[in-house]
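Subject: Interface between my chains keeps coming out wrong

I've been trying for a while to get a sensible model of this assembly. When I model each chain on its own everything looks fine, but I need the whole thing in one frame so I can look at the contacts. Pasting all components below, labels as-is. Any help appreciated, I'm running out of ideas.
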Amino acid sequence: MAPLLDVDSLAVTLPSPRGPLPILHDVSLTVDEGELVGIAGESGCGKSLTAQTLLGLLPPGAAVTGSARYAGTELLGLDARGWQRVRGAGIAMVFQDPSAALHPMLTVGRQLTEHMRVHLRMDRRAAGRRAVELLDQVRIPDPERALRAYPHQFSGGMRQRVAIAIALAARPRLLIADEPTTALDVTVQAGILALLERLRAETGLAVAFITHDLGVLSALTTRGYIFYAGRVVETGPTGSLLTAPTHPYTAALLGARPHGTQSGGTLRPIPGAPPAPGEAPPGCPFQPRCGYAEPSCGEAPPPLTPAGADRSVACVVRPHLEVAA
Amino acid sequence: MTTVHDGEPGAVATTASRPRGAHPLLTFLAKRVAVTAGLLLGVTVVTFGLVNVVPGDPVTANLSDQALNDPAAVAAFREKWGLDQPLWAQYLHYLGNLLHGDLGHSQQTGRAVLDDLLHYVPATLELALPSMVLALLIGTGVGMLAAVRNGRLTDQLVRVGALLGLSTPPFWLSLVVLYVFFYQLGLAPSGGRLSTDFSPPPTVTGMYTVDGALAGQWDVAWDAAQHLSLPVLVPTSLTVAMLVRFVRSAMLEVLQQDYIRAAYAKGLPTRVVLRRHLLRAGLVPVVTVSGLAFASLLSGTVLVESIFGWPGVGQYAYRSATALDLPAILGVSLFVALVYTLVNLTVDLLYGLIDPRIRLS
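Reply #2:
Try treating it as a single job with all components included. I did that and got this:
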């Protein structure tokens, strides 16, 4: 079966005062129907820009090449009307900070129903009924009252639940969640993650979960993509990806994570910083920070190549070494 | 490994509970009335002081040369207007009358200042209201358009246009408008509120267009509206220029917000995003400047009123000031202060109407 979302060799270049800046390079990824896929990496690695590309929300002047097919439809090059049909009803999005992503001056009910009425052609009453069901589904107490309330009257976690209900309102098949728990308290995070997993199990919703938190990645997703400097450097089932990382960057990320190392292990920050867009070295983008780098790493960015069961890695050195686990 | 469990404690939707006692809106209004009373008192003090400090004498400003040479006439003038009293006595006398709603008599017109104001204010109102409504509609629309087309040709043209509008002196624009529409095209009358063939309609609001319509005298209303067209055009275009720049930057800021991207991400058509999400959020700062613009229009535009022979507050203020006509100056000052307070109050109430975060806190 063809995947629900099939991104192939996606590259995005943004305009800047100093000329075009390439941000995404050769990104390929798939999300199957009902699958929870993780996209992880440091901030500025292109995770969010990938999400914006898939919703056609790039700033004016952005140049996109490659292909992104949703349910068989090519997204890149859609006109305004085409995008309107996909957004909300096909692919929906949950943003990082619910306080910023909900309109402060419109009631929850208004924000929950307006696109239902556009996409599902519902009248006011039907949309109202569905809105109550949705709020119930995301566990908002007293849904009828919540419909008349404004976002600022909810706590952060409740706001994110409202935002998820809004994203689901027009029955999308793919939800892109862009760090939906980063702005929330840790105790609230777990509830949101459980909610997403429950929605996936109950409704067959596919979720692309963007995060910088490997703990969240392992707790929630079945398959993961590790981004670095606008490229996918490693991908595979989350379990094996995080227990036996192949790419030096994935391994370093795990080492830099508190509690990520074996008990008694030390926290090892990754030396240096990721390259700024447009300033990546000619070869492997991680090479300047990499402990395994060889002279050949500086020649050309290594392509993503299969490495073991369902895994791919963009590294020419480490997969061939015998690394102590 | 992170454990995942559903539900989170202690997060329930709450509406802000209201403290017991008077309705918050009433408390708010009562406070504002008290502040306004204090403000008006301050205005009388300052105006009284300033008029008496400036060099110049109402006697020389009002009496003819011949009368000035007659000590009896000068003494009579001083006695009539209480100018022979010490300053504090004059002030207390004025305040006493003011408490009874008596603004005194204008030395210039000889009429009660209140009657003068009731005559001039509606003329200014008739000019300010349509100017403001038009400016708001055009300014908001064009400003939004420029913001949405940020950096493109439309935006550039709008910005140049607004800059030109802002740097155009009102008197010059008035003369150009007169030359084009009256002298060259003959489309509009040159000045005054009504053609000489008509007499003013029975006074209800004091605005000839409204009163004419109310009395069913459509020809009078139409004639008044034609007389209004050019004097309205000038303040409108200046206010539009000011609003456009302001609306544009306010809307640009809103366009950066996540909730606008979220609205697009829901698959809403652009016009819905702009009309429902963008406009609503950009309105709060727009209301603030619009209030100030409206208050300044209501306080009278001396140059425009003079060029178009429009008997409004601006002209009255100008003539009173040159004649050092203290009761009239005080009357106008109080009126202007009252206008600004009322407009500010309206703006604050509108904030609450637009933004529930203000209303519910």
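Reply #3:
Confirming on my end. Chain B is about 70% helix and 0% strand.
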